[in-house]
Specification:
The protein is of the alpha+beta class. The protein has helices at about 15-25, 30-45, 110, 135-140, 150-160, 170-180, 185-195, 210-220, 225-235, 240, 245-255, 255-270, 315-325, 325-365, 365-370, 380-385, 390-400, 430-445, 450-460, 470-475, 485-490, and strands spanning about 45-50, 55-60, 70, 290-295, 300-305, 310-315, 400-405, 410, 420, 425-430. Strands 5-4-7-8 form a four-stranded mixed β-sheet. It has a two-stranded antiparallel sheet with strand order 1-6. About 30% of the residues are buried.
């Protein structure tokens, strides 16, 4: 086989360790950032947190023989970080605008294009909301072959369940209330109650804790150990169990210690709150990265000093490195470089967040004055062009970063939304449209709720062209029931 040499030219992108660190820190939330910094602090002796009473440290120049060593100075700017690093070697220079626009396999172009009113992507809806208990029960009822009247009665009972899944309203009062709108007998309501109690989760629509636990026990197999005794306890002796009066329980149940223990274990395995697993998302702790206030009649953004980690280079170890010439000194030199990169990248992270936030506040100033109805359409490209960064960087900056405002705390992505055309040739934010829909629903006559088609007509009269199916989509996103269900779910009707 004949061998030959070939010369080929090719281009490839190499991520330096510093750029990798920049991208990593930028996409972290403030909570995750602090956790990551704790790891660095444990691993790197050259890095330390600044005590609240200490001054920050500036590391100037490359740390080589004859170079400047860390010096202490006070920062004047309230939005600056607690540690600045001067110009490093040319390979480590990060003075130019930070832009972590390295392609990570995701396309951000689509996020910048305006979609039509039926296919838009909302950044305010990062994840779908969990189904509520009522929604789950209604879905189950819709699958049952019931007369329309019986199904309505069951839905009315579902509407009156409290947040724990209990029916706390008196049945006679409910019957009298429903009688104003449809003919109903107490027996009819009792039948509807039994139908609702037969749904999942077991124990729902109970009128007391005793009934809730009893429903769950009755759903267990008949051969469950101590089932009979457990039913006796939840129906008649819950107070004794709550008081841990096991001697009394032994006498009442006529059983021994082991049997009482089994009864107790069986009862405590039940769920006293059937709605526990519905409509409850994961608990997320949020720290505001930026605070927006009105200063001199204008809205201004500033970094939250409480959220900014205060880091510096440990002076003791820096002095040791200066004096050392052995192998240990080389190891410390590598850790010093890592510490410098980390401090610099943390500073850049917050500076970038502030720049992006300022651009968002400038474009959404009417929101801060008038609320959601004044939200304007905004896409990543607009902010990217204004601050001179890539769309991918804007996406990283606005994800899991939060803004504290007089109107509440919002994720930066909340301010991005698609547009819907108006009759005058302009555009209206879909967030503003949802706010208008919410206002219309809250102001409607509960006996004659507005249909999606009627809401679409009202918005058209205001110059906002929105299709009926788009109204339905926005309404569902806000977890607002359709008109026929709102009529029976309203507290004024059902």
């Amino acid at each position: 086989m004949k061998q030959s040499l070939q010369l080929k030219l090719s281009q490839h992108l190499t991520l330096t360790p510093q750029l990798q660190l920049s991208i990593k820190l930028l996409q972290l939330s403030t909570v995750d950032l602090n956790q990551e910094l704790e790891r660095y602090l444990l691993e790197n002796p050259l890095l330390e947190r600044v005590d609240i009473n200490n001054e920050p440290v500036e590391l100037a120049g490359s740390f080589t023989n004859g170079s400047e060593y860390p010096t202490t100075r006070t920062t004047d700017s309230p939005t600056s970080t607690t540690a600045d690093i001067g110009t490093a070697d040319s390979d480590d220079r990060v003075d130019q605008p930070f832009d972590a626009s390295v392609d990570d396999g995701s396309s951000y172009a689509a996020a910048s294009r305006r979609s039509d009113d039926d296919e838009d992507t909302e950044y305010s809806q990062v994840a779908a909301a969990e189904a509520t208990l009522q929604e789950s029960l209604i879905n189950q009822l819709s699958l049952m072959s019931l007369p329309e009247r019986d199904k309505r009665l069951a839905m009315i009972l579902v509407a009156h369940l409290d947040e724990d899944g209990y029916l706390t309203h008196n049945m006679d009062d409910l019957c009298a209330l429903i009688a104003d709108h449809m003919e109903v007998e107490p027996d009819d309501l009792q039948i509807a109650l039994r139908r609702v109690q037969a749904l999942e989760p077991t124990g729902v629509a109970a009128r007391s804790l005793s009934e809730c636990l009893s429903l769950q026990l009755k759903a267990l197999p008949a051969n469950t150990p101590q089932l009979h005794h457990a039913l006796q306890v939840v129906n008649h002796h819950l107070d004794a169990l709550a008081a841990r009066d096991f001697v009394k329980l032994k006498r009442l149940l006529r059983c021994d210690d082991q049997e009482v223990k089994q009864v107790r274990e069986l009862i405590i395995s039940l769920d006293p709150k059937p709605s526990r697993n519905f409509g409850q998302g994961d608990i997320r702790y949020v720290i505001a990265d930026v605070i927006v206030k009105k200063v001199g009649g204008k809205w201004a953004a500033q970094l939250n000093s409480e959220a900014m980690p205060k880091l510096r280079v440990n002076k003791l170890y820096a002095d040791l490195l200066h004096k050392s010439r052995d192998s240990d000194g080389k190891n410390l030199a590598g850790q010093l470089q890592e510490a410098r990169w980390l401090i610099k990248n943390v500073q850049q992270r917050f500076d970038t967040i502030l720049r992006v936030t300022e651009a968002i506040v400038e474009r959404q100033r009417h929101f801060f004055d008038h609320g959601e109805v004044a939200m304007r359409p905004l896409v990543l490209r607009e902010i990217a062009d204004q601050v001179g960064l890539h769309e991918s960087t804007i996406s990283r900056v606005t994800t899991q970063k939060y803004m504290l405002t007089p109107r509440g705390i919002f994720e930066l992505k909340y301010f991005f939304g698609s547009s819907v055309a108006t009759d005058e040739g302009g555009a209206c934010s879909s967030i503003a449209i949802r706010a208008l829909i919410k206002q219309l629903v809250h102001a409607e006559d509960t006996k004659k709720p507005l249909s999606d088609h009627r809401i679409s007509d009202i918005l058209s009269q205001q110059g906002i062209v929105v299709a009926r199916r788009t109204v339905a989509k926005y309404r569902e996103a806000m977890q607002i029931q359709p008109a026929n269900l709102r009529k029976y779910f309203s507290s004024n009707v059902a």
